[in-house]
Amino acid sequence: MEKGTVLIVDDDPVVRNVLLDILGSVGGYTTDVAVDGLDGIAKIRNREYDVVFTDLTMPRMNGMDLIRETRKFNPSQSIVVITGFSTLDNAINAMKEGARDFITKPFKINTVISIADRIVGEKKLLGRLSTGADRETAMERLNKELFRSLYEIGIFHMVSTELDGLFNNTEVYENLVEMASRLLMVREASFGIIDNGTLKIESALGVTAGSIPVAGSIFEHVLTTKNYYIASPGEINPHTGTALASPFFSIPFIMNEEVFGILNLSGKSDGTTFADYDISLAVAFAKKAALRIENNALYEVFYGNLVNTLKALVTSIEVRDSYTKQHSERVTAYSLEIARHMGIDPEEIDVINFGGYLHDIGKIGVRDTVLLNPGRLTSDELEEIKLHPVIGDNIIKPIKFFPRERELIRSHHESFDGRGYPDGLEGHHIPLIVRIIKVADTYDAMTSSRPYRKALPHAFAVDELNKFSGIQFDPEVVRAFLQTASGRGASCVQV
Given 3-state DSSP classes, what are the helix, strand and coil percentages for the chain, each rounded to the nearest 5? Predict the structure, then answer.
């Protein structure tokens, strides 16, 4: 018996054929295909389909435009979008445009058929409504379905956005269970990392954290099959070692085709079991979270290597010039003291923490005969030295991760009165973190031994900072420095 008609819109013949087999041969639907968005629109205009499955990325017309165009002439057409786990946000946006649901690649047969059956079933209910049969029952069911769908879309989009804002995996682990409990409305949740034959619980809600042996537990099945498992009441709860009173849902987190973590959910707040839509939602969330964790891990490795490379360049400068050995660390330490005393934002603190270390990286482009000259520099040599902020900026420019650090590197020799270099910035047109580095850099330069003189006393450096406050230096920053431990609490002249 024919269950309904389905249109598959996708420019990839492999995807089309897979969905044809699932929905036609297995699902029992009458199927039709379109090779892109324009072809799909033409077919939707000429024939009525119970469900349309459409890819989002296609030539001539993409899936989002297909949804918008279809709604103009057939707003009741049910459309399901096809997406990869890395583009789930696009699926959420498509649902805001009017799509009914989404499926993710690779496809699970039961998920695809379940979505089609649900949408066709709801359409038949609407048909009965129009005849007045079972009106009250059908309306109540549809209202529940609508509320559930809207809730799922809203919560899933919310937690997806939250996940995308977590760039540290420790934060991801800490927030996962709370997000999952909101999404699936469960009273108990835990997330753990596979570690030497145990599941080390990183965060938990309603259960006790700790390390749980994998062997002989529910987790062993998840680890072996690399698939989710729902334990029935009566099976052993891995958290307590006692019989389960309600279903226990374990979902693997997979990276490089290996299970590295497991998310566990139990105790649905409404007392029900995990339905198909719960399973689909939980699996989609787990894959989204696993991808976030993987991306963070890759970023941390890449960022760490990049930072080490840049620090090695700074070290190479200090090796050339023994007088400036550890100058960058001291400047950074002084700058952090000032910044914390002034109460600037944590993000700015992070920029100083790294950018202060790199502020003189451009000196790698200055000749040894100039950099190590123990006497007075010629005008040409002075001009060469003055190029190092620009050289440093050019070194960092191709790296897109450090825009604020570039400001600090380029502008740390600008003066408050506008007579600095290389750009002649003045006053508050110079970023605050740069004005802070300027004071710290000058103080350390005065109190450190140089090729042409010995270190100057702290008291002399303080007098110079006061003398040139409002000229070379921001008076507010000078006052802040002199109130820090390194400034030794010295009073400063008001300007």
Answer: 55, 15, 30
- Please tell me the distance from the alpha carbon of residue 350 to that of residue 401, in angstroms, as a whole number: 13
Choose the weakest-confidence range: 27-41, 315-329, 413-427: 315-329
Q: Do the beta carbons of residue 251 and residue 262 sit within 8 Å?
A: yes
How is residue 398 written in tokens?
Answer: 């191709």
Q: Round to whole Å and give the CA distance between 415 and 435.
A: 8
* Cβ 446 vs Cβ 464: under 8 Å: yes
Cα 5 to chain centroid, rounded: 40
Q: Is 488 helix (H, G, I), strand (E, B) or coil?
A: coil
Alpha-carbon distance values, 131 to 2, 140, 189, 278 (Å): 22, 16, 45, 32
- Residue among 175, 173, 145, 146 at smallest CA distance from 161: 175
Q: Which residues contact 428 (CB under 8 A, 6 or more apart)?
A: none
What tokens were used for 81? 């979008």
Q: How much of the chain exceeds pLDDT 90, in percent?
A: 50
Q: What is the mean pLDDT of residues 362-384?
A: 84
Q: Helix, strand or coil for residue 250?
A: strand
At residue 61, the pLDDT reads 92
Assign 129 a pLDDT band (cuts: 50, 70, 90).
low
* Rounded Cα distance, 47 and 37, in Å: 15
Cβ atoms within 10 Å of 234's Cβ, excluding its own: 8
| Beta pairing partners, 104 | 83
Residues whose CB falls within 8 Å of the CB of residue 141, separated by 6 or more in sequence, listed in order = 125
- Judged by DSSP in three states, 113 sits in helix
pLDDT digits (tens, 9 = 90+) for 271-327: 888 987 788 888 888 988 998 898 888 877 777 777 778 878 777 777 776 666 688
CA 355/CA 256 separation, integer angstroms? 34
408: closest CA among 365, 352, 361? 352
pTM for this model (two decimals): 0.51
Q: How far apart are the C-alpha atoms of 160 and 179, rounded to whole Å? A: 9
Looking at per-residue confidence, does 93 or 415 come out higher? Answer: 415
Q: Using an 8 Å Cβ cutoff, are 218 and 229 in contact?
A: yes
Partners of residue 243 on adjacent β-strands? 236
Domains of the chain (ranges; CATH) run: 5-150 (3.40.50.2300), 169-289 (3.30.450.40), 321-482 (1.10.3210.10)
- For residues 1 and 480, which has the higher predicted lDDT (pLDDT)? 480
* H or E stretch covering 494: none
Give the span between the Cα atoms of 56 and 427, in whole angstroms. Answer: 50
Query: How many CB atoms are located within 10 Å of the residue 308 CB?
Result: 9
Q: What does the mean pLDDT of the chain come to?
A: 86
